[in-house]
Specification:
The structure is a homodimer. Chain A is built from eleven helices and four strands; from the N terminus they run βαβαββααααααααα. By secondary structure, chain A is α+β, with helices and mostly antiparallel strands. Chain A has a domain of 119 residues: Glutathione S-transferase Yfyf (Class Pi), Chain A, domain 2, CATH 1.20.1050. Chain A has a four-stranded mixed sheet with strand order 2-1-3-4, covered by helices on one side. The longest helix of chain A is centred in the middle third of the chain and has 22 residues. Chain A is globular. Chains A, B: It catalyses: RX + glutathione = an S-substituted glutathione + a halide anion + H(+). Chains A, B: It comes from Cinchona calisaya. Chains A, B: Keywords: Detoxification, Transferase. Chains A, B: Belongs to the GST superfamily. Theta family. Chains A, B: GO terms for molecular function: glutathione transferase activity.
């Protein structure tokens, strides 16, 4: 039975799993769980992931959620995956696990609420929240500074000094890509000071093309809708048309 | 060269690593990094962990931080560790990784700020923050409900249906033990509805004695100080004596 991925391209960890499978030639069936239609909250999806979050996978009789656990599992379960994605070497693997854990309470804790409170909220019928966005931006900027000064230290182009990408590069870069939904000026202000981060995003993109661009295309579509909504002033939109324009949870 | 653990018993992930090493007969040198003296923020400790957080380890020339990554590493690096702590089986390991990832953005995201804003703040010279505490309690209670209904599902006494504890049991139970710092009534109100969680805490404690109680003794000492501070009204205390009574970051 083919591996099933329950995903939505607007979800950054979904994209990381999708790109990983594509790059590594893992055959899968994509099951779209449309966040904008709140399908992730349905009783059907709760059978797959009781936490009602994306992504989730079903591999035969085995169900799994949490994107990092999924990436670790796939890297080990499919023998064709090159070692650099999640090295068998105990020390290299431990460093990658360390980045992945760090990500949860740092980069993600900054980026996700910034995008929500600084860009997406109006599309969900909620006001922008500049205070929450400013707090998130502080966490995000501190996290980007740590990536720049510590995680990208050394001669390698990728995290923890590697010369080839790992599942941690994919996870963190997909998170940062979500900033594409912000106003360009804000995004440039935040990312601009971190030259190594910008180069690393580009290196990760180049190492995973054409899948990287294909999986991220959705962001530019959503942004276009956000800008249109903004220029329309939103006054002539019904609550329902607003909600359908954008995901309710990213 | 002996494994070095950089820890403070008041830090819940430090306790998880300490108990793990003790239970598994891993020989180590304990290096106390006193959070109440802000030693985790010192330039010396930044050489060990540039993120300035506890715990961290040094094993020979290898440095590592993030408690989950440390537990995963130790379970694999020391051949005497029983398999149930972090199973070699791909599926069992994946489920444990999934709980560990989930923990970051659920249980910990509720428990840690609740203890800070609901109990510890005055000892740090900051006011209690009932609004932040109430928000954290909602996240914590939802997380405990998920542990009760999902992670402790099945016949096993431990997480993901296991009959013996894993590193995930240790990590999550040590987090919940931090609630001992709360007012007894508040703690009972929060934990009371979750009978399986209460039994599981007890099972994890029993499976890791006498080390569990030894490593948690600090919490009861800190609580006594908190209560004394409360009954004294804090008015006759200097800022400096307040700060030294309690950890600045847990």
């Amino acid at each position: 039975m083919k591996l099933k991925l329950y995903v939505d391209h607007v979800s950054q960890p979904s994209r990381a799993v999708l790109i990983f499978c594509r790059v590594n030639g893992i055959d899968f069936e994509e099951v779209k769980v449309d966040i904008s239609k709140r399908q992730h909250l349905s009783p059907e999806f709760a059978e797959i992931n009781p936490m009602k979050k994306l992504p989730a996978i079903v591999d035969g009789r085995f169900k799994l959620f949490e994107s990092h656990a999924i990436l670790q599992y796939l890297a080990c379960a499919f023998p064709g995956v090159a070692d650099h994605w999640y090295p068998a070497d105990l020390f290299k693997k431990a460093k990658i696990n360390s980045v992945l854990d760090w990500h949860h309470t740092n980069l993600r804790r900054g980026a996700a609420p910034l995008v929500l409170h600084g860009a997406l909220a109006p599309a969900l019928g909620r006001p922008l929240n500049p205070k929450a966005a400013a707090e998130a931006e502080i966490i995000l900027s501190a996290s980007l500074a740590k990536i720049e000064s510590f995680w990208l230290k050394g001669n390698g182009r990728f995290l923890v000094g590697s010369s080839q990408p790992s599942i941690a590069d994919l996870s963190l870069v997909c998170e940062i890509m979500q900033l594409e939904l912000l106003d360009d000026e804000v995004r440039t202000r935040i990312l601009g000071p971190h030259k190594k981060v910008i180069k690393w995003i580009d290196d990760t993109r180049n190492a995973t093309q054409p899948h990287f661009d294909e999986m991220h295309a959705i962001l530019f579509k959503v942004k276009k809708k956000l800008l249109k909504m903004c220029s329309d002033g939103g006054s002539d939109q019904t609550e329902s048309s607003r909600k359908s324009a954008l995901p309710s949870k990213m």
